Amino acid sequence: MKSRHPRSRSWFSALVLGAILIVLIGCAASNVGKPDSYGASVPPPGGPGLSAPMEPSSSASLPKIVTFRAEPPHIEAGGTTRLIWETNDATSVSISGIGSVPLSGSTVVIPKRNTTYVLTATGTAGSTVTGEARVKVTVMPELK
Description:
Layout: H1 6-30, E1 64-71, E2 74-76, E3 81-88, E4 92-95, E5 99-101, E6 104-109, E7 115-122, E8 128-138
Parallel strand pairs: 2-8
Antiparallel strand pairs: 1-3, 3-6, 4-5, 4-7, 7-8
């Protein structure tokens, strides 16, 4: 059996590696400027400064409820409590049992029984988030 010269093996390896590189470069070149599955585009040879402009993504931020609470959270029947709220990135805010309210603020309520108030903040593109504030009402027994 003939033994191969060591240089013939390295020549063959270089040929195979060269063919692989050509295939990889061809695949990359066919995707220049096209967004991948993550929305990023492959920059053209010469650097990212020459890439095609990408469409702006819809980055409508979700509204945030910074705070929503009742002060005090426990009252006696007939007593008052203040609902306090603050939102960010909201276009409208409503509270169950009250209706539309400012984006941040407070209001006094007189619940007759234990009540959970639900604040709904709506953002751009109609996205919504909700928060709850609970008020516990203690009913004092009648004295006879």
